[in-house]
């Protein structure tokens, strides 16, 4: 009988149970097994002895490696809203207790759902560039792009119960006001470039309507300019942060400000770098003339080297999978060969 003691520290894994079986076999081995040859259990122990640098010790300590989690898990309280924040060139009054609490609420709401916040941050790589260009071209603050995250989570085909549609969530009447067409075939409110152009014009108008105050302009974008005007008049105020209004509008501006704080610094709050963001897709616009009564988008996709799902995602304004007779501008993936690969004849 072998009396060597073996202590094992382990996690619950199959490998550990195998090791325990070997040690158990060693302590119950038949004495006759030691006469002409070593038992299998002894061989296992010899292997362990070779791995143990302290071979003269009576006791053996076999430590199995722990399974380590990648990265650390932080409490949400480890992230703090800064003492000073500016938005669209305006100082946010964080020294006011109720203002700070409202913005902190939205700040931690974003951070609480880390998975969704990571995806939102990644989407900004694709949906922000067109907005950034158009805001810059019209001289409006770049910060207004963060409205996209609150309005639609940067989803071009987003649609609400109030029938608001697209990345900027235009309701039908406001869409028509800024010449965004919507019919049975397509909804131009879903087109990022076209709806951003309309949003820029609308925001510029709202700012002038609300005494050049961007906080009030954004509130009016959410609730409507007339509703905000009546609230301010009834409460005899001119400051958004003092206004008592619908819950959604009360949360709307703080949420946009919290979005700016987090998504302008994804490396600080989400552990992401610029290279982690989704890359803007390289596309080109082609003209398709449908001469028959209707044509399937799947057929058009195949002709231009793509597939239906990708074509629909690149052109979210198309409501159906069939196009009636007419002429259409359609985005397709940019081809990398000198002329269209699918148009070239195959070499014999």
Structure at a glance:
This protein is mainly α and 348 residues long. The protein is built from 13 helices and six strands. Helix 7 (192-209) crosses helix 8 and helix 12 (297-303) crosses helix 13.
Shape field: globular
How large, in whole angstroms, is the Cα Rg? 32 Å
First-last Cα distance: 79 Å
Structural class: mainly alpha
The first-level CATH class of the largest domain is given as: Mainly Alpha
Uncertain residue segments: 1-29, 31-36, 342-348
Largest sheet: 2 strands, parallel
Structural summary, described in words:
The chain is mainly alpha-helical. It has three domains: 6-63, no CATH class; 76-276, Lysozyme; 283-343, Membrane-bound Lytic Murein Transglycosylase D, Chain A (Roll). 44% of the residues lie in helices and 11% in strands. It has helices at residues 14-27, 40-51, 97-112, 114-138, 147-152, 172-177, 192-209, 214-223, 225-235, 247-263, 266-269, 297-303, 308-314; strands at residues 6-9, 60-63, 86-87, 90-91, 283-296, 322-333. It has a two-stranded parallel sheet with strand order 1-2. Strands 3-4 form a two-stranded antiparallel sheet. Strands 5-6 form a two-stranded antiparallel sheet. Mean pLDDT is 85; it is low at 1-29, 31-36 and 342-348.
